[in-house]
Specification:
The structure holds two protein chains of two kinds. By secondary structure, chain A is an alpha+beta fold. Chain A is built from twelve helices and eight strands. In chain A, 29% of the residues are buried. Classes of the chains: A alpha+beta, B alpha/beta. The structure holds glutathione.
C-alpha cells in the first residue's frame, strides 16, 4: 500500500532553485523576483496616485474621523448608542446588526433548505412537486425584489400601534415591530446564568459518555431523563435559593408608539425572512445533490436492516451526504451574509447602510470607509469558512472512524 | 523555456499596466477642456424630484436644478440639450463628484461647512433658500412639531435632514425613532404604509414628494422649519476656472432678472447701448472671455433657460404644479435674499 516517498535532492541550493524557479532554474528565479518587484511597484503607484489625488482635491484622509461625532440616529442598536457617539460606535452598531440578521438568516435558511431539499425527493408526489416549485420560483426572482416584497407584505399585514395585536397584554405586534417586555437583571441573575451554564456542560458530558458507551461497547444508555432533570433542575434550584434572575419592564403605549420593552423592528423581520427563504432554495438543491450522491445500495442496506425511511435518512444518508454538502453550503452562508448588505433598500441599519452609506456620505472619506467595510466582510467570510472547514473535518473524521 | 516565455509576457503586461497608471498621475486637467472635448456636460441630479430634477413623460429632464446644468451647457457648448444627466441618491452624490464621474452636482444639496471643506467640494452659490420641515397625516391631529414626542420618522439617508432630526429631537428632549432609506421613493412609500408617523425633508422637497402620494390632501406640513437648507450646485476642489464658470452661470441668471432681461426680450435688449447692458451682453469688453467662455455667454444662458425668476416660476413657482411662493427666493430688491454680484 504505502508508496516509497521520493527522496528530495540533498543540496540546499538545488532545493531553493526548485522552490523559486520551478523547472526553469536560475532564470526562473530572476523572473519571479522581477515579477514580485513589478507587483510591489504597481501597488505603490496606486497608493501614491490616490494620495496625491486626495491632496490636490483637498479631501480629508486618514482614520481620525472615526473619533468624530456621527450625529445621526439608528433604529436598531444591540449596544447602547446615542446621536453624540462616534463613527467608530456607528461601525460597531452596524456590524452587530449585520451579524444578527446573518446569523438568524443562516439558521432559518439551513432548516428550510434541508426540509425543502429532502421534501423534493419525497415519494409523495404532491410534496415533491411543491418543493420543486418552491425552488424554481424563489431562486429565479431577484433578491432585492423579494426583500421589498416581504417588507411591503409585512408592513401591510400589520396594524398601527393603537390597534396592535396584543399577546396577553405583555407583548404587542404592530407596524412598529414586535415589542416584548425587557428583562432587567436582578441579584439572582449571576447565579442563574452560572446554573444554566453548568447544566449545559453536564448535559454535553452525559452525551459524550453515552456515545462512547455506544461506540465502544455497543450498549445504548438512556440519558434524556437526566439531561432534562439537570437542565430544568439547576436553574430552578438557583431561583429558589437566590431569587428571580430578572424582572421585566413591560411596554406601554405612549403617544405615537410603545415606550419601554425590547423591540424587533419590521425591517429586521422582512430582511431575515427574505434572506432565509431565498438562500433556502439554493441550499435545497445542494442537499438534493448531496443525497443523490450517496449510493443507492446504502438506502437499500438501511431498509434491509429494518430501519424506517426517516431513520435511514437521518442515520445513514445525511451523514454521508454532508461530505458533499458542506463546501457549497459554506458558499451559501457567505452569499447570505454578503446579500444582507441589500438592507439599505428597506431601511435596516446594517454595516453597509450606516457605515458605508450614511457615514461615508457625511465624511466623504470613501477610500478609508470602503477599505474598512471590505476588510470586515472578508473577515466575516473567512471566519465562517474556517468554522465550516472545522465542522467538515470533524464529519470526515467520524466517517472514517 | 516555455514557462519563462509565459512569465516574461506576464511581466510585460504588468509593466504596461503600471506604466499607464503612472501616466495617469494627476496633473491639473481643466474641466472646461474635458467638457468641450466631450461635447457634453455631465451633470449629477436627483433620482426624480418634481420641480427640481425629474424626467417628464417624454423622458426629458426638467426642473430648476436641471436648468442650471442646461444653462452651463448653453454657455459652453451653445446647446442646452448637450447634457448627460446622472441620477444620484443622496448618499452617492459626493463620491460621484469626487471621482470625476460628473462635472457638476446640481441636486438640491445643502451648503454646509464640512461638504465645502473635508468632503473636498466647493459650493458655487445658492439656487434655492430652503429649510427642513415635517409632513404628517392630517388624521393624526398634530399641529406642531413639538407634539412629535415618541414619533417614528422616515428620512432619506445621507442627507442633512437625517442629522437635523437628531438635533431637533434632542434639543427639545423628545424621544424618536428614525428609519432611513437610500431612495426617496422607498422613504415615501414606507411613510405612506404607516410605518412612520412623519416624513421629513427640506420643505420644497416635501411639497414635491407630496404630489406622489395617493392622497396628497390627507397630509399636512407642520409650521416649524427646523433648519437652514441653502441649496446649490457644487464642483470639485482644485479647478478655479470651472468653479467660476458654474458660479457665474447662476449669477448671470440672477442679474438678468434684476436687469429685466427675459427669454423673450433678450435679442431686443442686446441692441441697447446702456453701458451696463453692453458689458453683460458682451458688445463691450470681453468679460465672457475672461471666464473662458464667449462674449455672448449671458445671451446664450437666458435664451436657453430664461432668467432666474422665469426658471423659478416655470419649475416650482406659480406656473408649475408645485406653486411654491418665491418667499426668500425673491430678489433682494423685492425683499428676498437672492443677490448676485455685478457683472463687470
Ligand atoms: N438638502 C438635503 C437633502 C437632499 C435630499 O436628498 N432630499 C431628498 C428628499 S426626499 C431628495 O431630494 N431625494 C430625491 C432622490 O433621492 O432622488 C441635503 O443636501 O442633504
Amino acid at each position: 500500500m504505502a508508496i516509497e516517498a521520493r527522496k528530495p535532492p540533498p543540496q540546499f541550493a538545488a532545493r531553493m532553485k526548485r522552490v523559486l524557479g520551478g523547472r526553469s532554474g536560475l532564470s526562473g528565479i530572476a523572473m519571479q523576483l522581477l515579477f514580485a518587484a513589478a507587483l510591489v511597484w504597481v501597488g505603490y503607484e496606486i497608493i501614491a496616485n490616490a494620495r496625491t489625488n486626495l491632496e490636490t482635491q483637498r479631501i480629508a484622509s486618514g482614520f481620525g474621523f472615526l473619533n468624530n461625532t456621527a450625529g445621526f440616529g439608528v433604529s436598531q442598536a444591540l449596544i447602547p448608542y446615542a446621536e453624540n457617539d462616534s463613527y467608530l460606535r456607528v461601525f460597531l452598531v452596524g456590524l452587530l446588526n449585520t451579524l444578527a440578521v446573518s446569523a438568524v438568516g443562516v439558521f432559518f435558511a439551513t432548516v428550510i433548505g434541508f426540509l425543502i431539499g429532502l421534501g423534493r425527493m419525497s415519494p409523495n408526489w404532491l410534496v415533491a412537486r411543491l418543493c420543486g416549485a418552491y425552488v424554481e420560483i424563489i431562486r429565479n426572482l431577484p433578491l432585492l425584489f423579494q426583500i421589498l416584497f416581504w417588507y411591503i407584505a409585512v408592513l401591510a399585514a400589520l396594524p398601527a400601534p393603537r390597534q396592535s395585536f396584543s399577546f396577553f397584554g405583555v407583548a404587542f405586534l404592530s407596524n412598529r415591530g414586535l415589542v416584548v417586555p425587557k428583562p432587567i437583571p436582578l441579584d439572582g441573575s449571576a447565579p442563574f446564568l452560572i446554573a444554566v451554564l453548568v447544566a449545559i456542560i453536564v448535559a454535553i458530558a452525559l452525551r459524550i459518555h453515552a456515545r462512547k458507551a455506544l461506540f465502544d461497547r455497543g450498549s445504548v444508555v438512556t440519558i434524556w431523563p437526566y439531561v432534562l432533570a439537570v437542565l430544568v433542575g439547576l436553574p430552578v434550584l438557583s431561583i429558589m435559593v437566590f431569587g428571580m434572575p430578572a424582572t421585566s419592564e413591560p411596554p406601554v403605549l405612549r403617544g405615537f408608539n410603545f415606550s419601554g420593552g425590547s423591540r424587533v423592528v419590521p425591517e429586521f423581520v422582512a430582511l431575515a425572512l427574505a434572506l432565509s427563504t431565498y438562500t433556502a432554495a439554493f441550499i435545497a438543491e445542494i442537499v438534493r445533490a448531496g443525497v443523490t450522491s450517496v449510493h443507492k445500495g446504502q438506502v437499500e442496506a438501511g431498509g434491509s436492516l429494518g430501519l424506517s425511511r426517516g431513520q435511514t435518512l437521518r442515520l445513514i444518508v445525511v451523514p454521508q451526504a454532508l461530505r458533499v454538502i458542506l463546501p457549497p453550503l459554506t458558499n451559501q452562508y457567505l452569499n447570505l451574509t454578503k446579500n444582507s448588505s441589500l438592507a439599505v433598500a428597506i431601511g435596516y441599519p446594517d454595516l453597509f447602510s450606516v457605515f458605508a452609506g450614511t457615514s461615508l456620505s457625511q465624511t466623504g472619506q470613501a477610500i478609508e470607509i470602503i477599505a474598512i467595510t471590505m476588510g470586515v466582510y472578508l473577515l466575516i467570510s473567512l471566519v465562517t469558512s474556517a468554522i465550516m472547514n472545522f465542522y467538515g473535518w470533524r464529519v470526515g473524521r467520524s466517517m472514517s472512524a | 523555456m516555455k514557462r519563462s516565455a509565459l512569465a516574461a509576457s506576464m511581466f510585460m503586461t504588468v509593466l504596461l499596466a503600471a506604466g499607464s497608471a503612472a501616466a495617469q498621475a494627476p496633473k491639473a486637467t481643466s474641466t472646461l477642456d474635458v467638457v468641450k472635448n466631450r461635447g457634453m456636460l455631465s451633470c449629477g441630479v436627483s433620482q426624480g424630484l418634481p420641480g427640481f430634477s425629474a424626467p417628464d413623460d417624454k423622458g426629458n429632464w426638467t426642473g430648476i436644478d436641471v436648468d442650471i446644468c442646461r444653462a452651463i451647457a448653453a454657455a459652453i457648448l451653445n446647446d442646452p440639450t448637450k447634457v448627460r444627466f446622472v441620477p444620484l441618491s443622496a448618499k452617492d452624490r459626493f463620491t460621484s463628484l469626487q471621482s470625476s464621474d460628473i462635472d457638476v452636482l446640481s441636486r438640491n444639496t445643502t451648503w454646509t461647512l464640512s461638504r465645502d471643506t473635508s468632503v473636498g467640494l466647493n459650493f458655487t452659490g445658492i439656487t434655492y433658500y430652503d429649510g427642513q420641515g415635517f409632513l404628517v397625516a392630517k388624521a393624526k391631529n398634530v399641529n406642531s412639531a413639538l407634539e412629535l414626542s415618541n414619533a417614528t420618522v422616515c428620512v432619506q439617508t445621507g442627507t442633512t435632514n437625517e442629522q437635523n432630526v437628531a438635533d431637533y429631537f434632542k434639543a427639545n428632549k423628545m424621544k424618536y425613532e428614525i428609519v432611513a432609506f437610500s431612495s426617496a421613493d422607498e422613504t415615501l412609500k414606507t411613510y405612506e404604509s404607516g410605518r412612520c408617523d412623519v416624513f421629513t425633508s427640506d420643505v420644497s422637497q416635501i411639497v414635491a414628494e407630496r404630489t406622489k402620494l395617493a392622497q396628497p390632501d390627507a397630509h399636512a406640513i407642520l409650521p416649524e422649519v427646523i433648519s437652514k437648507e441653502p441649496l446649490g450646485p457644487l464642483v470639485r476642489h482644485g479647478d478655479d476656472q470651472w468653479f467660476d464658470i458654474v458660479k457665474w452661470t447662476l449669477f448671470a441668471m440672477l442679474n438678468a432678472e434684476e436687469l429685466g432681461i427675459t427669454q423673450k426680450n433678450v435679442d431686443e435688449m442686446a441692441k441697447s447701448d446702456k453701458p451696463e447692458l453692453k458689458r453683460v451682453f458682451g458688445t463691450d469688453g470681453n468679460l465672457g472671455e475672461q471666464l473662458g467662455l464667449t462674449k455672448d455667454w449671458v445671451i446664450r444662458i437666458v435664451k436657453a433657460v430664461g432668467n432666474y425668476g422665469e426658471t423659478f416660476d416655470r419649475n416650482v413657482g406659480e406656473n408649475s404644479k408645485l406653486k411654491i411662493a418665491r418667499g426668500w427666493n425673491k430678489l433682494y430688491t423685492q425683499g428676498g435674499l437672492q443677490y448676485a454680484p455685478p457683472i463687470r
